[in-house]
Amino acid sequence: MAETGERAAAGQPALVALSTFAPALARLVALRPVLGVRNVGHTLAKLVRPVQGPSLLVSSCTHPDFGRLQADLFGRTGMHAMSLRATDGEAVVSARRAQAMDHWRLGECHTVIAAQSVAPTDLALPDPDAVSTAAWTRAVLAGDQPVPATLQGQVEAICAALDPSLPR
Questions:
Q1: Which domain holds residue 1?
Q2: pTM
């Protein structure tokens, strides 16, 4: 936790394992292989803010009903959060077409990226296998391949939401 705090204070990304700050919740989440389905622990884990002070919660929703409940929570609490479309509980990152992103601040929602229904056809992506995808990802990270505009848009939206001049 100390290292995470130092990274956050230096403006660097910080990751804290769920088992570190909420071991009971981590055990509940770990029941998925036994139960065969997600449970309430997965929902709670997506909404936990393991830090004190200003932060941005980046969460996701798979089902429209959960999206409405999440929006109500963010609106009522004034939570500083972003909500992304999810598949099977995980935020969707699509290199082909933009996924909707909403930014919640002081109880108000602003759509910062609208969902695209049609993907451009001129985007050069790897074959859909692990080896090709890993090689393409390494090339993008090395600057040898361009970052897809949809991914760059998500990064820019999150960075803009982290702007310290914005009210929290």
A1: 1-53
A2: 0.76
